[in-house]
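Last lecture ended with a question: if I hand you only a sequence, what can you say about the shape of the protein? Today we answer it with a concrete record. The protein is Secreted protein. Below, first the input exactly as provided, then the predicted structure, then a couple of comments.
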Amino acid sequence: MKHRGRHRRRRRGQALRATLAGTALALTAAATLISTSQATSSGTPGGLTPLTSAAATGTLRLHENLVARDTLDTLTKDMGGNVGVDGVLRSADRSMRDEADCAAGERAALPVEPTATRAYCWESGDAKTRQWQPRSVTTSGDADDDGQWGEHRVILAGWTHHDDQAAAPTRDEGLARIAFVDATDPHALTYDWVLLVAPRDGGKDFRALPSDLGGMVWYQDKLIVTAADGAGLLVFDMHRILKADVNSGAVGRVSGGYSADGNQYVLPAIGSYDMRGGACGAGAGDRAVPCFGSLSLDRTSTPDSLVATERSTSDGAERARVWRYSYSTAAYRTGLLADSQGYVDAVEAYETRAAGVSGALSHTPSGAHKADWYVGHTADSGTQHDTLWRQTEHGAKAATCTADRSHACWGLGAESLSYWQETGELWTLTGAGTDAGAERVLYAVPLSSVDGSLG
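The predicted structure:
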């Protein structure tokens, strides 16, 4: 398979060591400008507050843990070798529906202003399975700056399983899977599922790997996602996608081979990043150890960086942090974060008053010296559309909906943001909240339209 750009050159000499510890157009003319500052009235987040003290940034420090190479090689060999992204896409037998074929409720979950220029709905059986929820999105536009992986344009959508509280637990509880979407033909998107797993028994077996998938970023040949309950990050190698040869509800080695809960493919974790300060949620204020909320990629920083948000509630009772880690520029560490003797430090951090942060993206416009931060805010009700703020240290802006003059114009339950640099599109999906029901839609809005909606 042909791979382009930096990730092809940097793969040479790659060596992973140690063990796993611990288990991201034009605007509708009616939109108007709303600008705020730190002194503005309630309901607006105001400007970002920089966090610069060692005590505040120290709580964001990560410790890197990598699985032993022998363990990964054993599992890869026993399961017949890497099938690659191309192998998954070749077997994709589920079709996404274009916006015109989406149900009225699904279309109603799309943003009001600015409007989506591309929107797709999942195959009916996946769209109506309430226990599985879409949480995050990343694309081959994150993976490589030419927007492709080999000959394909690819979208990854992370889904996690949650049982209804009133129902008895099922065998799927705690599972996390990713839809690999072939978006090469924008008029005929297809996809297949890949289950996230962790190697065990020296690579002779694997187990299900819980993850809330609130954030997910595919950069070069690595995929980084949020761990269960936001307690750290998990790392996967896109050159180690393996095929299960037994179709059953079990996960792991079974009589006759390997099973993945009915899925054809598994993606085994190759490492993790744990918060150095301990369990997330411990402490108070800007010195508390954060639980990860969402992730995204910033290709406009130097070097490229992983953007993270802190999980927060939508009731406005607490502030949330947004921050970034630089990616490594070492040729043998493709897709891994920049480390210093096994530790990764945040290179920039802010506090935002946008309670209920549902996703964040950092992007520096051409010619500018500082990044704009696009921060999603989830409404309390779960039935009201989200708000997308553009924040800097000096203030915040959001589109105003023509119908009710509110700022709730973004998609319903949109929890993740991904910027496809080559096309200029901002991708996200609806249906992350439990109240969003089956209104699950994957859609794109040009970033220029988002900026245009702010005046």
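Comments.
1. The helical segments are 6-10, 54-58, 69-78, 84-90, 104-108, 124-127, 140-143, 447-452.
2. The chain is about 10% helix and 35% strand.
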